[in-house]
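Archive maintenance. Older records in this collection stored only the sequence; we are now back-filling the structure field for every entry so that each record is complete. The fields below show one back-filled record exactly as it appears after the update. Entries are processed alphabetically, and CDP-archaeol synthase is next in the queue.

ARCHIVE ENTRY
Title: CDP-archaeol synthase
Organism field: Metallosphaera yellowstonensis MK1
Length field: 167
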Amino acid sequence: MQLNLIELGLAVIYYLPAFMANGSGPLVRNGTPIDGGRVTWDGRRVLGDGKTYEGLILALTYGTTVGVVISSFLGSEWILISFLESVGAMLGDMLGAFIKRRLSIPRGGRAIGLDQLDFILGSTVLGYAGGLRVSLIQFLFICLFAFVMHLGTNFLAYRLKIKSVPW
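Back-filled structure field:
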């Protein structure tokens, strides 16, 4: 397997809907929690206040809109792929929040790896169901890219007072 910069660039384009969906959530300040305030067997919230219906709708809208633009270049199937990637990104993010609550990590608490990759794994699974096809090299590159971008964009969001913590 040879490193091909065009393939790596395409991987970024393929995952733009997931990145857009995942990055749009913090734009919702006060929303209706998806878990409705419910707790699990351990007495902790299912997801917490950070996962809201409004954030979910915004994420799906942003991610799918990016897919509509991508479909102009790569074909109409990208509308469905981008929607599924966006749903997968949000489900992956919610699974990450669920795991963090079980580990007693509070909202905004740091969980290296989980914070950066939960949405990529979710978007890949559902994206594949819709027709997303990436090589192992592209997937591994996107994982590294997501890790670095997550750290950088969260620090920027913190500096712009969009997030309360820099991670």
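Update note: The two ends are 34 Å apart (CA to CA). The chain has one domain: 16-132.
Entry marked complete.
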